[in-house]
């Protein structure tokens, strides 16, 4: 005697798998949509700040890159001819699609006056309050503190 389970028939199995996939995708996309609504619109702010150094540092680019790594940022651009370095944080596609959170930031440093004056541009973009001036100020202050500490130690 052979027992056949009707829910294992080919057509019904495919329909069940399709329903599970549809439900899972709806749940994931629904959370992202709720997060985008709850987080509000995506804001962007760019501020320019200054740092004056007592002495020029020959390893300033390495120090800036190391501070960026400590802040979970990577080297995006380095132009030693025009004395510019840019660090950026990655945009998380997973977090944007899963929970609706969007955030990205960049720090652009222009060295002037024999590398003793740094013009620091901070750009923040995101929702849940990430793309606001207060967050740019916080990122700059953390960058400045870590950079001056690193330069004193070297």
Description:
This protein starts with 9 loop residues before the first helix and ends with a helix. It has helices spanning 10-39, 60-70, 93-98, 133-153; strands spanning 43-52, 74-79, 84-88, 103-112, 117-126. A hairpin with a 4-residue loop joins strand 2 (74-79) and strand 3 (84-88). The longest helix is centred in the N-terminal third of the chain and has 30 residues, at 10-39. It is α+β, with helices and mostly antiparallel strands and 154 residues long. The chain has a five-stranded antiparallel β-sheet with strand order 1-5-4-3-2, with helices on one face. The radius of gyration is 24 Å and the shape is elongated. The chain has four helices and five strands; from the N terminus they run H-E-H-E-E-H-E-E-H.
State the low-pLDDT regions, or none: 3-38
Which value, in Å, is the CA radius of gyration? 24 Å
Total E-strand runs: 5
Beta-strand residue fraction: 25-35%
Query: What's the number of helices?
Result: 4
What's the overall average pLDDT, rounded? 78
Mass-distribution shape = elongated
Features:
5-stranded antiparallel β-sheet; about 150 residues; alpha+beta
Which helices and strands, and how do they pair?
Blueprint: H1 10-39, E1 43-52, H2 60-70, E2 74-79, E3 84-88, H3 93-98, E4 103-112, E5 117-126, H4 133-153
Antiparallel strand pairs: 1-5, 2-3, 3-4, 4-5
Helix pairs in contact: 2-4
């Amino acid at each position: 005697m052979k027992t056949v389970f009707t829910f294992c028939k080919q057509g019904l199995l495919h329909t069940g798998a399709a329903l599970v996939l549809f439900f899972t995708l709806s749940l994931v996309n629904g959370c992202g949509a709720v997060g985008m609504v709850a987080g509000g619109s995506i804001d962007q702010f760019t501020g320019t700040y200054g740092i004056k150094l007592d002495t020029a540092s020959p390893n300033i680019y390495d120090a800036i890159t190391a501070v960026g790594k400590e802040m979970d940022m990577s080297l995006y651009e380095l132009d030693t001819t025009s004395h510019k370095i840019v660090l950026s944080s990655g945009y998380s596609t997973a977090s944007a699609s899963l929970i609706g959170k969007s955030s990205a930031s960049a720090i652009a440093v222009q060295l002037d006056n024999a590398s003793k004056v740094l013009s620091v541009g901070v750009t923040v973009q995101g929702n849940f309050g990430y793309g606001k001036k207060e967050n740019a100020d916080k990122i700059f202050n953390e960058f400045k503190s870590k950079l001056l500490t690193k330069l004193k130690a070297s």
